Amino acid sequence: MSRTRFVHQALCYGSDDEFLDGTLTFARDGLDAGDTVLAVVASHNIGLLDEALGDRSEEVEFVDANDWYGSPSRTLGRYNAYCAAHDTDATGRPRGIRVIGEPVWSDRTALEVREWMRYESLLNIAFAGTGHWILCPYDTRALPVGIIRSAVRTHPELALGPRQSAHCGRYVDPADFYAECDTTRPPILPAGRDDVPFARGRSAHVRRAVSAYARGLGVSEQLTHDIVTAVHETVVNSVRHGGGRGVLRLRSDSEYVICEISDPGTPAAPSAPPPPPPFPGHLPPDPSAASGHGMWVVRQLSDLATQTLDPTGSVVRLYFRRSAVL
């Protein structure tokens, strides 16, 4: 079975046999059609699918999900780059791409789970104009009910077995799901004596403060560079669109370095200001576009990011994992 439009399906399985019922024919059909087939699944499921495919397993690229699903934005970027590199054959002719993608849900905080749910919904926008096919397995034996319920709200279709599927009646439009995710945001950080005010022309001061803070925590040079770059880009955006000044607050806990950039907005904002761009920074920008890359880069560098964008005052909070977990 082949499709000419983007397909995004959830496979809810409760046994090894159900996992294979949903993935084996999917992979074989893709190989028979000349598609690129990528399986990013739990290590146990790699073994199951590899054995079931037999000699054809060499035609499938396998990746352990723990090595792929590090942060939502970087994972979307990684899929985008993979598809761009594999959507033509050796002669340059278009070819389909089939992905079996099993997100990692274990050991996630509530904030992380919410952002991974948002990621699943955003796939429907990011790949809407393609003919790719993504099948997302959900293990009902191990996952909380809330995560299983989210699957039928973020996937237009349910995979029911070999070449069988059904429309998800509870599927939610990505714009509505995105807005729903934004109804729960962490409170703004309280003021502290180490806060860093910024204004136009003070970006070097911000970079020095962030670098000193990160090094004081003992994080790696690479992570320090990523934090400085992401904060600098966010501050530049804040100065440009938020009235020319703001405050940077630097905090940390056992897991994350947290950087919050807030501004008071534009004092002379029009009575009917334009709405913020949809899905800001979440979707890969057009490589040929002259602008619109900033927040995408910020999200690629950070592990998590929350945004409240408003002409009367915006807050962007960036999270950087202190240790190299996932």
Automatic annotation (TrEMBL):
Mention any Pfam family matching this sequence: MEDS
Molecular function per GO: kinase activity
Keyword check for Transferase: yes
Q: Which domain of life is it from?
A: Bacteria
Domain annotation MEDS: ranges? 8-156
Region: Disordered, residue numbers:
262-291
InterPro entries xrefs: Anti-sigma-factor_SerPK, HATPase_C_sf, HATPase_dom, MEDS_domain, RsbA-like_anti_sig
Name all Histidine kinase/HSP90-like ATPase domain ranges: 204-319
- Which of UniProt's keywords are assigned here? Kinase, Serine/threonine-protein kinase, Transferase
Q: Provide ranges: composition bias, Pro residues.
A: 270-287
This one is known as Sensor histidine kinase
- What is the species of this protein? Streptomyces phaeochromogenes
From which lineage does this chain's organism come? Bacteria, Bacillati, Actinomycetota, Actinomycetes, Kitasatosporales
